[in-house]
Amino acid sequence: MHSTNLSDDPPFGADQFAALVIDWQQQQGRHDMPWQQAITPYKVLVSELMLQQTQVTTVIPYFERWLQRFPTIEALAEAEQDEVMTLWQGLGYYARARNLHKAAQAIAKRGSFPDDLDSLQQIPGIGRYTAGAILSFAYDAYGPIVDGNVRRLFCRLFALDGYAGQSQLEKQLWQLAEQLTPKQHNRRFAQGLLDLGATICTARQPDCVNCPLQGGCKAYARQQVDQFPMAKPKKAKPSRQGHFLWVQQQGQLLLEQRPDTGIWSSLLTLPEVAAEHPLLQQAKPVGSFRHQFSHYQLDATIWQPQQQVQESPQHGWYASRQLAEIALPAPIRKWIEQQLKHSTAD
Known about the structure:
Elements: H1 14-28, H2 41-51, H3 56-69, H4 73-78, H5 81-88, H6 95-110, H7 117-120, H8 128-139, H9 148-158, H10 167-180, H11 186-200, H12 218-221, E1 239-245, E2 248-249, E3 252-257, E4 268-269, E5 272-273, E6 284-292, E7 297-304, E8 315-319, H13 330-345
Parallel strand pairs: 1-7
Antiparallel strand pairs: 1-5, 2-3, 3-4, 3-8, 6-7
């Protein structure tokens, strides 16, 4: 495993590295993203959680709508969870929305936004990366960051072995981030790291010719850029069967609120039942869909029961005009809309 101590075999010193990143960002980096305007800690928190697992172009309209509806952390803290989840729908990874809501409530209760790494990481939903990003972008203060872009950049720059998620590699990456992060111009430095990873040191077809760090990049010197970071060994993704009910009554559709843990937590969906549920013995299949989660594949069948469904407190009836206003998982919403469209056509 390669060492991460800069004194061992430095491609360049920490000061030179910071200067290269900062100068490049000032001239070539991104400066017009909405969360870069009139920066506040709250805007940084919202943007960073939205940008996890999601492309910038997808996030921008969601971010703008979010700030229109919840312009302050207090407004978000006071909102009902249903409204928060509805505004988030379409971005996926709904735990981010719940974490953002919990963070807002904790900060509002605290009375002020934390301004140091330890205090920030005490807030629900704020981890090591997000804390560093808030310090860097909102306060222009020392805040080391490591995300997917920085990981790829550092792995190539220092020819680091290992793949994302390996504890030894993650430890090395954070050590490097702590050593390389300067004590000033942190906003521009952090943005430079992210911009380099997103626009130059990309996963495929990196633009090494225009990289300001090319002269010290070990992977480039070895002509092994495409070998870093190492690919994680692939495992066969398991599949799971899901069984959902299609129940209509007087123009309304029966929906069920999911538990606050597990997939689609706290969202409304078609009621789900176990494969051995008695209702399925005489039910008629009316459709199916397949959805890819990060760790497994869901093969779903939708059934129209011939017997009356016993309702629970989690159940509710919704008219079709209400569906646009409630938080539904994307594959469930798509299937419902297609089914209602076909029903109307018939």
